[in-house]
Design goal:
CATH topology of the largest domain: Rossmann fold
Oligomer: single chain
Helix content: 40-55%
Number of strands: 13
CATH class of the largest domain: Alpha Beta
Distance between the termini: 71 Å
Shape: globular
Structural class: alpha/beta
Largest sheet: 5 strands, mixed
Number of helices: 22
């Protein structure tokens, strides 16, 4: 596709969109569809068709609008008027919205949520900028929203070194949990000798309660493709892989569809944008093993082997897929790249904190008035996310703790509610940013039982290759079972702490190295709950 073709396609799509006086955006995310969103959209489409208004009203299936707990969501955008968002739209409500607002021009009072609400107003959308605004299955819709402009600029106007430097200056860090500077990793691959380099998008999201990457892949698949293609151009790679767990069938389907569309428009393949840049992508489906989120296990799975980690070094940028240099970035990391190149490294670096640049997408879950997918500037206080964006803990109950980082993370107690959500601050509290799971718990939750839940998860998901993780997580689970059953002693807690240290320092990969974090953080902040469950003096543990 030439530069003129890309511009013309965007203009044609924008012109087509402008021919409608009203757009009705119906959330088609997994959460809204599970709540009946498909029926709501069908009701609007039927009403529009019955009125013969198809040329005036466009019904658009979109990606996630964010407020998952209030779905299905429908947003009406009429020419010259402010957008109106409706929540909990069932078939009956959708019919009324269609008749009174879409066709009649009078908004329905019931079910409205102002877009000035703190849930939306306090967010800053970079990765999620297209969510709820376009049909994720149409490449034309993505191109009309500046899609592939960053790839075009990189390939036609910048050298690979220029692109690497721009990512470095932006301060973008890995959003999968490690927080490693993306620009530094890209530079390592760019400077690595050898042919047949690969770039890999890690979509093997497995933390309980986390669905950030799944939503990005489902609802903005071309953004991920564009970020991956830019990474390939910058590092000299010619092959890309999208590694997605099999539990995400919608993401797999839409990514494969996006690849076909991009190939058809010559945005993938030989001579991208007429330049000497050849790049193609394929989807590889994982079987759901949590350990395959670890980069060496992920590569083993792509190559058809069992997903088990290996010692590093050598790192993937030295010896990756089939022994050739490779780059692995998390899906959200790559989804930041197109916007960084379009708006500039300085713009991105101006968001967030000194050491944690940009925004972060969180899956906000647990005992909150409002839950869903949010994107906020790095450094925003946890209190703001919970009380303002999330609407606080419902039912008059008190906030107790927030779990960040999934099985690899820790629990943050109420006394640290003003902690900035950035890499350094969370690490100082014994937790991690992780991929973005954020689970809020109220005063009724037992913290030893929370630790037991995550330890069971790690025990089940251990690949079993190394003894510390295989046996250590099993024994720690047994000790937590004993404590939760009220049969433990002080010696049980002491042994648990000792095991945590052994497993953390001697495990082969990140799964075992971080598995003790939920135990250690709950012991640090809620030790009294463990001690309250100890067996009476003289009882046998």
């Amino acid at each position: 596709m030439s530069v003129v073709d890309l511009h013309d396609l965007a203009q044609r799509e924008l012109s087509a969109q402008g021919s409608f006086r009203t757009h009705v955006f119906c959330c088609g995310s997994t959460a809204c569809l599970a709540a009946g969103g498909g029926g709501a959209r069908a009701a609007v489409e039927d009403a529009v068709a019955a009125a013969g208004a198809e040329n005036a009203v466009r019904v658009v299936p979109t990606g996630c609008m964010g407020l998952c707990s209030a779905g299905p969501l429908v947003k009406v955008r009429a020419r010259g008027e402010a957008d109106v968002l409706y929540t909990e739209v069932d078939g009956v409500a959708a019919e009324r919205i269609a008749q009174e607002h879409v066709l009649g021009g009078t908004p329905v009072a019931e079910g409205q949520l102002p877009l000035s609400d703190p849930f939306f107003a306090l967010q800053q959308r970079v990765v999620l900028e297209n969510m709820g605004e376009m049909d994720p299955e149409r490449i034309e819709a993505y191109i009309a929203r500046s899609g592939y402009q960053a790839l075009q600029r990189a390939v036609l106007e910048q050298t690979p070194a220029d692109v690497v430097e721009e990512i470095r200056r932006s301060g973008l860090r890995g959003r999968g949990g490690g927080g490693y500077p993306a620009g530094a990793k890209w530079k390592l691959l760019a400077e690595a000798p050898g042919e047949g380099k690969s770039v890999i998008a890690n979509g093997d999201e497995g933390d309980p309660g986390a669905y950030m990457d799944r939503t990005i892949m489902e609802d903005d698949p071309h953004r991920v493709l564009e970020g991956l293609a830019i990474a390939a151009y910058a590092t000299g790679a010619t092959k890309g892989y999208l590694y997605v767990r099999a539990e995400y069938p919608v993401a797999v389907r839409r990514l494969e569809q996006a690849i076909r569309q991009a190939r058809r428009h010559k945005l993938l393949g030989k001579g991208v944008f007429g330049a000497e840049f050849n790049f193609d992508v394929e989807v590889r489906i994982g079987a759901g093993a949590f350990v395959c989120g670890e980069e060496t296990a992920l590569m083993a799975s792509i190559m058809g082997g069992r997903g088990t980690p290996v010692l590093r070094p050598p790192y993937p940028t030295e010896r990756g897929l089939w022994g050739r240099p490779s780059l692995i970035n998390n899906v959200e990391t790559l989804a930041n790249v197109p916007t960084i190149l379009r708006r500039g490294a300085d713009w991105f670096a101006g968001i967030g904190t000194e050491q944690s640049k940009g925004t972060k997408v969180f899956a906000l879950a647990g005992t909150l008035s409002r839950t869903g997918l949010i994107e906020v500037p790095m450094g925003l206080p946890l209190r703001t996310i919970i009380d303002d964006i999330g609407g606080g803990v419902p039912g008059g109950k008190a906030f107790k703790a927030a779990q960040t980082g999934g099985p690899s993370g820790g629990c943050i107690p109420a006394r640290h509610l003003d902690t900035p959500m950035d890499y350094q601050s969370l690490q100082a509290l014994g937790s991690i940013m992780g991929s973005g799971g954020l689970i809020v718990m109220d005063e009724t939750v037992s913290m030893p039982e929370v630790a037991r839940f995550f330890m069971r998860f790690c025990m089940d998901e251990s690949c079993g290759k190394c003894v510390p993780c295989r046996s250590g997580t099993f024994e720690m689970t047994e000790l937590l079972e004993t404590l939760c059953a009220g049969r433990g002693t002080k010696a049980t807690i002491e042994r648990l702490e000792t095991l945590c240290d052994v497993v953390r320092t001697t495990s082969l990969c990140g799964l075992g190295q971080t598995a003790p974090n939920p135990v250690l953080s709950t012991l640090a902040y809620f030790r009294d709950e463990y001690e309250a469950r100890l067996a009476p003096e003289g009882a046998v543990a």
